[in-house]
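lol forgot to send this yesterday, sorry. struct tokens for the thing we talked abt
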């Protein structure tokens, strides 16, 4: 059975990479409720959304959301670690019932899976020295700002930076962050994930100045899983209204669920 599953997953991944259609295995809500367990695919290598705790168990933002979803459904969560490339094949092959796996909602993906209302999001923003007042692009003039070369934040900053902005490009986020923390620059273009990590290390030394772009993430089910998707959407609505997602987001990213996520629901 394990060999068959591995073979199917390999073939499924190859088919997706080639752009071929896959027969999807829809999740049956009634069967999930009868079994008392829901299989939830989750990344464990994308902090702080998906990590492993000291005992090797899945943890992070997505793990807390997955557990809250299971409680809402009245079943036990069985979290299945997945990777970026195999998470959709796992879902379509029925190896997991849902994905709570930091899956950005895009048109291409929406042709393969059905998405819930957004439950999370990643934003790119200008971030930097708390004592520096920069509220929009015009404030970048005369400033030095670090970005990871050829990244989304590099493109975002380059597109809006006025004349006189010194854009300093580094090989990756880590070296760009080091430039900020060492005082080489007072600003940086980064994701909210990196902002959270900097904030945990430095307290209120830095803050967000203004947003550049954002992408929302959805819980995914296989096409045809209509009853389950309806329940998942009801969960997202309740978790947003009662503050559950705010608390989880505050725990892992240092702020409540961003407005751009709520506005997209």
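and heres what i got for the seq, position by position
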């Amino acid at each position: 059975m394990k060999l068959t599953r591995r073979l199917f997953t390999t073939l499924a991944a190859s088919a997706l990479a080639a752009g071929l259609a896959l027969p999807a295995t829809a999740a049956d809500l009634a069967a999930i409720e009868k079994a008392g367990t829901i299989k939830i695919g989750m990344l464990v290598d994308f902090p702080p959304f998906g990590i492993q705790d000291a005992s090797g168990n899945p943890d992070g933002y997505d793990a807390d959301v997955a557990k809250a979803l299971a409680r809402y459904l009245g079943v036990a969560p069985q979290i299945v670690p997945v990777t970026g490339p195999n998470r959709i094949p796992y879902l379509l092959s029925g190896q997991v019932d849902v994905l709570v796996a930091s899956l950005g909602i895009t048109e291409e993906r929406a042709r393969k899976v059905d998405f819930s209302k957004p439950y999370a999001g990643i934003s790119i923003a200008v971030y930097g020295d708390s004592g520096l007042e920069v509220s929009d692009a015009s404030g970048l003039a005369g400033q030095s700002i670090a970005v990871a070369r050829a990244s989304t934040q590099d493109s975002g900053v380059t597109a809006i930076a006025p004349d006189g902005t010194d854009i300093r490009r580094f090989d990756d986020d880590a070296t760009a962050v080091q430039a900020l923390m060492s005082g080489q620059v007072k600003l940086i273009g980064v994701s909210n994930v990196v902002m959270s990590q900097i904030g945990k290390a430095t307290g209120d030394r830095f803050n967000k100045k203004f947003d550049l772009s954002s992408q929302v993430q959805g819980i995914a089910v296989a096409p045809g899983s209509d009853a389950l998707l309806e329940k998942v959407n009801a969960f997202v609505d309740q978790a947003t209204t009662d503050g559950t997602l705010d608390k989880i987001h505050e725990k892992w990213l240092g702020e409540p669920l961003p407005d751009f996520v709520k506005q997209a629901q």
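Residues 2-17 form the longest helix (16 residues). anyway ping me if u want another try
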